[in-house]
Automatic annotation (TrEMBL):
<dbReference type="InterPro" id="IPR050469">
    <property type="entry name" value="Diguanylate_Cyclase"/>
</dbReference>
<dbReference type="InterPro" id="IPR003018">
    <property type="entry name" value="GAF"/>
</dbReference>
<dbReference type="GO" id="GO:0043709">
    <property type="term" value="P:cell adhesion involved in single-species biofilm formation"/>
</dbReference>
<dbReference type="InterPro" id="IPR000160">
    <property type="entry name" value="GGDEF_dom"/>
</dbReference>
<dbReference type="InterPro" id="IPR029787">
    <property type="entry name" value="Nucleotide_cyclase"/>
</dbReference>
<dbReference type="Pfam" id="PF01590">
    <property type="entry name" value="GAF"/>
</dbReference>
<dbReference type="GO" id="GO:0052621">
    <property type="term" value="F:diguanylate cyclase activity"/>
</dbReference>
<dbReference type="Pfam" id="PF00990">
    <property type="entry name" value="GGDEF"/>
</dbReference>
<dbReference type="GO" id="GO:0005886">
    <property type="term" value="C:plasma membrane"/>
</dbReference>
<feature type="domain" description="GGDEF">
    <location>
        <begin position="202"/>
        <end position="323"/>
    </location>
</feature>
<dbReference type="InterPro" id="IPR043128">
    <property type="entry name" value="Rev_trsase/Diguanyl_cyclase"/>
</dbReference>
<dbReference type="GO" id="GO:1902201">
    <property type="term" value="P:negative regulation of bacterial-type flagellum-dependent cell motility"/>
</dbReference>
<protein>
    <recommendedName>
        <fullName>diguanylate cyclase</fullName>
        <ecNumber>2.7.7.65</ecNumber>
    </recommendedName>
</protein>
<dbReference type="InterPro" id="IPR029016">
    <property type="entry name" value="GAF-like_dom_sf"/>
</dbReference>
Amino acid sequence: MPGKTLPPYPYASILNLEIEEIDWHRWQRLVNTVADMFNAPATFINQANLKGIEVIIASQKPETHYQPGSSSLDTNIYCHHVVKNSSELYVRNAGQDQKWNDNPEYTEDNYVSYLGLPISWPDGSVFGTLCVLDTKVTNYPQTYINALAVIKEVIDSDLRHLYKENQLLTLSYTDPLTQIFNRRGFTDLLRSTQELAQRLNRKLILLYFDLDEFKHANDTFGHDAGDIMLKTFAKTLKKNSRSCDLVARWGGDEFIVLIHAESESCVNLFTERLNTLLARQQLEHDIKYSFGYAVIKPGDKAELDELLKHADDYMYQNKLSKK
């Protein structure tokens, strides 16, 4: 795929990584099956990464022009539009839309038809595309498009499994009251999560929560009410998080969440959703909290103690702002 020089996506290529948690042979069979089902010359699983749109799996047909490792940066190819809009794109006939006049897939390779669906990381951001290209005008029935969506969901599930393999939940890792990770579980899983994020060139944010006036509520309403507050907050944190995030009770009324994030703006989005969910709870005492956070960029060598100190300093300022 011809291209320019500006990488539009921040993720590392999974082709350059030794990822045993993904069944690559199954992905190949899925792609070949799609090509046969659509009677199409080319089907791909692509990743949006530092190389642009990179072919990860290609159908094994003579008419398939691109092979794994082929990539396009900021040329006007179909898949860029799927990733940018995080939505399905079906181009039945590129010749009827001037938008594609500078698309080399159309002008050079004669792929006049394109059907693509976004593949998602567990955090909801776009991993890449599952797409079908053809050299003839097409009009696929909706049943075919639905079948492609089911196959896409299988690939989504494999990416979730990639994260779950790094989050095996055992009794020794679980807080018995709240049923989320305990300090040991979080500490042990933090390293593997950081390593995975480093391999994928992904940013992490460590969120640190402390319940306000918990001791007062515990003393006033009793320990049972205090336990209900802790369990409710933990359950709400978990509900507000994604399958790839780590949620833990750090101790007492302190909680930690490790999220995969595109930017620090995710912190505000997270706390806004959390506040909305907490407002729906029917408790004797409203749950209020202070929080802090620390950003972990790919390649950061900071230890957990240093990250917690940074988050705690932020949380202290958050507490002061309420007085």
